[in-house]
Design a protein that fits this description.
Largest sheet: 8 strands, mixed
Radius of gyration: 21 Å
Number of strands: 12
Bound molecules: adenosine-5'-triphosphate
Protein name: ABC transporter ATP-binding protein
CATH superfamily: P-loop containing nucleotide triphosphate hydrolases
Number of domains: 1
CATH topology: Rossmann fold
Number of helices: 11
Domain ABC transporter: 11-263
Strand content: 15-25%
Strand order of the largest sheet: 6-7-8-3-9-10-12-11
Pfam families: ABC_tran, oligo_HPY
GO molecular function: ATP binding
CATH class: Alpha Beta
Keywords: ATP-binding, Nucleotide-binding, Transport
Length: 330
């Protein structure tokens, strides 16, 4: 993805593919293709929102960047170096420190047997952020204050179950701050939180990005929240980027029929889209395989033409920072 930014990208994702094995006699290769030709850059102090329905491949992108999954084809660069260079020893430790994830379930990533103090102190020690150990308590309390967990000393003494969901997500963000993360991969960070506290977490992420220059991948199925956090937006459908570019441009002038459907379904994109599916007005979400061809949205698209089912449309540049893959614009 081309982003109007002069800084060199921190992360470059180039023509990324990911296949998963499946047990099916009906499918020649026995593989499903979770990601097809994904390309984008992440820049310092800038966020890219990746939006799409469940199963569109959003989390798989984050997990590959976080080195939890191996890619099937393509390349990812971190500060100009191939991810393969960060496979062991201090290189891997440094990469894991710099590239952090924030998960959907804020409880899942906290250890119920340890205090909040432990959760913040541990990464500080592990990544040698503490020169003199007597400074450790103050460093922990400062981080807790930074993420709005006050009074810090009392919060530090608590266990994860004694905090609310929003507070637990703040602890996770404090851990990212502790290790001075350069890249944060936030996978639906607010979807398990009450609506009333979501905005606080989004604001905190915005602050990390603006004040510390963190580069962010913000994964969500809710296109409406993209503009709270992100400058750039990629709309995914069945493992493909169908439209991408500057967030406001896409939200105001959505061009791909799938993006238009997502925006029309706000405030509850998943529910409304599935209601349309159940109403039988649109085809099923396809299982994509390496043998599949055409536009993945063709079966659900009101404007589909015969060629949409035959080959994938090329990328069309609509504006400086607005791209689409759709025959309507070729
Ligand atoms: N470890 C795995 N093994 C096999 N298939 C997988 C694995 N992880 C993901 N998939 C498949 O890859 C596709 C993309 O999944 P992914 O979790 O990336 O989608 P998503 O857009 O993040 O969905 P959600 O919003 O539900 O998290 C899905 O069809 C999923 O079933």
């Amino acid at each position: 993805m081309q982003i109007a930014n002069t800084d060199a990208p921190i992360i470059e994702v180039q023509h990324l593919y990911k296949d998963f094995p499946i047990n099916s006699n009906a499918i020649k290769s026995g593989k499903m293709r979770a990601l097809s030709d994904i390309t984008f850059n992440l820049h310092r102090g800038r966020a890219l929102a990746v939006v799409g329905e469940s199963g569109s491949g959003k989390s798989t992108i984050a997990k590959i960047i976080a080195k939890m999954y191996k890619l099937s084809a393509g390349r990812i660069l971190y500060r100009g170096h191939d991810l393969e260079e960060f496979n062991k020893g201090t290189a891997l430790l440094d990469y894991r420190q710099s590239v952090q994830m924030v998960w959907q379930d804020p409880f899942g990533s906290l250890n119920p047997t340890h205090t909040i103090y432990h959760h913040i102190a541990r990464p500080l020690l592990l990544h040698s952020k503490v020169i003199d150990k007597k400074d450790l308590p103050e460093m922990v309390y400062t981080l807790l204050e930074k993420v709005g967990l006050t009074p810090a000393k009392a919060t530090a003494a608590k266990y994860p179950h004694q905090l609310s969901g929003g507070q637990r997500q703040r602890v996770n963000i404090a851990r990212n701050l502790a290790v001075e993360a350069q890249v944060v991969l936030a996978d639906e960070p607010t979807s398990m939180l009450d609506v009333s506290i979501r905005i606080g977490i989004l604001n905190l992420m915005e602050q990390m990005k603006n004040e510390l220059g963190v580069s962010m991948l913000y994964i969500t199925h809710d296109i409406a929240t993209a503009r709270y956090v992100a400058e750039d937006l990629a709309v995914m459908y069945v493992g493909h980027m169908v439209e991408w570019g500057e967030v406001d441009e896409i939200l105001h002038h959505p061009q791909h029929p799938y993006t238009q459907l997502l925006i029309s379904a706000v405030p509850d994109p998943e529910k409304s889209i599935h209601a349309e599916l159940e109403g039988g007005r649109r085809g099923e979400i396809p299982l994509w395989t390496p043998e599949s061809c055409g536009c993945p949205f063709a079966g659900r698209c009101h404007q589909a033409m015969p060629r949409c089912k035959e080959s994938l449309p090329a990328i069309t540049k609509l504006a400086d920072n607005h791209f689409v893959r759709c025959y309507l614009y070729e």
